[in-house]
Design a protein that fits this description.
This protein is α+β, with helices and mostly antiparallel strands and 370 residues long. It contains 13 helices and 13 strands. Helix 7 crosses helix 8 and helix 8 packs antiparallel against helix 9. The longest helix has 18 residues. InterPro entries: 6-hairpin_glycosidase_sf (IPR008928), 6hp_glycosidase-like_sf (IPR012341), Ssp411 (IPR024705).
Length: 370
């Protein structure tokens, strides 16, 4: 799904050769043709491929329900199936880049890359973020986001609320993973634009900006769907930004906006997931971790990863290189313990005793995650 410019394309078609799912689905006979009888029958059982099919047209989608006992055999089978699938007609791709969807991808890749020690995932998140900065932000000679681009050229469309909320969320995760202040600054700028141009004056948000082309009725909906609503995405990003900066006005905005989550959850809980996540973060604090160390110190990396693994709703992490100043309030007046990588676990900027121990940090984080 990666475009040549480094961002992520919108979608793949469901069909290839006029048949839905044909590129991905298999029959037992097709597995045997590719793998031979012995491996084919083994793969049929392992991947839940049946004679009648689990999908359509007698075909099955491959489902790895249990971990294979014979991992070398599985790797051989998997490689052979991947090579065979590569020869099939691929589904078409919608290669336009949507700002909001890339914001969500940036957040997911950056966080997962940090948690699973996969630097390539973080690099992919950074590449997508760089494309948004280079092409989407200020595309129309202002400080605003455009919604879509293609082939590295901005579309003639204005960003809507979910673009601002989701891209801000992605940038906030990049800040927490990389420690680069620019992502925090950019996220704050996007949130300020969202608040200025999308606020409805009643604690919520419109989906379109106040200077967008006029519509019969200006849309306004907090409901989550396949992606977080712009309303709840912006509110959640405000919570994170407030937790990192100590700027209470953003928390107040989030509290007002998330009032809609209760009403929506009672009426249609499936449409309130991101709003309820934000409400949980507000109730939890959220938890704040401040990390001081050097990039080359493996202990600092371990402490950082432990902080990022917190399951406390909405937990945030700020990172500073030892000996350097930071403009981030959460990192101010947090000296390291001598020359050791050091972590502070805080709520409302009130911190527990600093620690250089991974075991102690895990305990502190866990004690605030109930």
């Amino acid at each position: 799904m990666t475009t040549p410019e480094g961002a992520f394309a919108s979608a793949l078609d469901a069909d290839s050769e006029g048949v839905e799912g044909l590129f991905y689905a298999w029959s037992p006979q097709q597995l045997i043709e590719v793998l031979g009888v012995e491996d084919g029958e083994w793969a049929t059982g392992l991947l839940a491929v049946t004679e009648s099919g689990t999908f359509e047209h007698g075909l099955s989608t491959l489902q790895l329900i249990d971990e294979p006992e014979d991992l070398p055999r599985w790797e051989r089978v998997r490689s052979a199936l991947l090579a065979a699938r590569a020869k099939r007609v691929r589904p078409g791709r919608d290669d336009k880049v949507v700002a909001a969807w890339n914001g969500l991808a940036i957040a997911a890749l950056a966080e997962a890359g940090a948690l699973f020690a996969e630097p390539e995932w973080i690099e992919a998140a950074l590449a997508a973020a760089d494309l948004l900065l280079a092409v989407h932000l200020g595309a129309h000679d202002d400080d605003r986001l455009c919604r879509t681009s293609r082939d590295g050229r901005a579309g003639n469309n204005n960003g809507v609320l979910d673009d601002y909320g989701s891209v801000a969320e992605g940038f906030l995760v990049l800040y927490q993973v990389t420690g680069a202040d620019e992502w925090l600054v950019l996220a704050g700028m996007l949130l300020d634009i969202a608040i200025q141009h999308f606020a409805d004056g009643d604690g919520g948000f419109f989906d379109t900006a106040d200077d967008a082309p006029s519509l019969v009725r200006r849309p306004r909906d907090a409901s989550d769907n396949a992606e977080p609503s712009g309303w709840f995405a912006t509110a959640n990003a405000c919570i994170t930004f407030a937790a990192l900066t100590g700027l209470g006005e953003y928390r107040a905005i989030a509290e007002c906006a998330l009032g809609a989550a209760k009403v929506l959850a009672l009426r249609s809980p499936r449409a309130a997931g991101w709003g309820l996540a934000g409400a949980s973060a507000l109730l939890a604090g959220p938890l704040e971790s401040a990390m001081i160390g050097t990039p080359s110190d493996p202990t600092a990396a371990t402490l950082h990863q432990i902080a990022l693994m917190s399951v406390s709703p909405g937990a945030v992490t700020a990172l500073r290189v030892a000996g350097e100043l930071s403009s981030v309030p959460l990192l101010r007046e947090r000296p390291p313990l001598g020359e050791l990588a050091t972590a502070y676990v805080c709520l409302g900027f009130t911190c527990q005793r600093p620690t250089a121990s991974a075991v102690e940090l895990a305990k502190q984080v866990a004690s605030n995650s109930d």
